[in-house]
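FAQ

Q: What does a record look like?
A: Structure on top, sequence underneath. For example:
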């Protein structure tokens, strides 16, 4: 095994062409992001993880049904719209919102090394998801965010090798995480603009 970010598909490696963001590679990277919620605390973030997984499934189902029309996420959305469908497009909308939330939260944590995760995730929520949630969902998120682990514990889990063979230094982890988040931010921003 290896440290977490080295075991999953990186958003850095998701191809983006003039035609758009590669659907299959994007889904692999999104699945890798979902695993971060296990490191944050599976119980506290179970609803977030389930929502992301469900929406990844909606996009994957559409891709599997029409791979020739879904090579990129942009093609998938355009072709689904032309067929007067919206299941995958709606799933992708919510997936992007969840990815934006996670990205902003971790970017906030990265920008301020003394900020605890609960605070960084609250700020990420305020900037991304809160405006889409009703009163009940806001309460559920508030409770989940209170369950964030301490920053040091989470970063230790991200850096460690579960087998104890190797681990990243905090500087190496920070550099790798910054690249991962920057690439995710580019993809999310691009697709949000496409939707507009």
């Amino acid at each position: 095994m290896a440290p977490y970010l080295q075991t999953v598909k990186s958003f850095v490696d998701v191809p983006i062409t003039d035609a758009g963001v590669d659907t299959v590679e994007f889904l692999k990277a999104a699945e890798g992001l979902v695993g971060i919620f296990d490191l944050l605390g599976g119980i506290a973030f179970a609803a977030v993880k389930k929502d992301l997984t469900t929406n990844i499934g909606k996009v994957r189902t559409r891709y599997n049904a029409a791979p020739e029309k879904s090579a990129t996420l942009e093609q998938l959305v355009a072709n689904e719209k032309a067929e007067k469908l919206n299941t995958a497009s709606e799933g992708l909308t919510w997936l992007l919102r969840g990815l934006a939330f996670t990205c902003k939260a971790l970017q906030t944590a990265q920008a301020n090394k003394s900020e605890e995760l609960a605070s960084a995730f609250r700020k990420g929520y305020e900037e991304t998801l809160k405006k889409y949630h009703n009163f009940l969902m806001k309460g559920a998120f508030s409770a989940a965010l209170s369950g964030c682990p301490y920053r040091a514990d989470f970063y230790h889990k991200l850096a460690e090798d579960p087998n104890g063979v190797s681990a990243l230094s905090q500087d190496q982890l920070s550099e790798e995480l910054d690249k991962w988040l920057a690439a995710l931010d580019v993809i999310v921003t691009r697709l949000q603009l496409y939707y507009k």
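Q: Is there anything notable about this one?
A: The mean pLDDT is 90.
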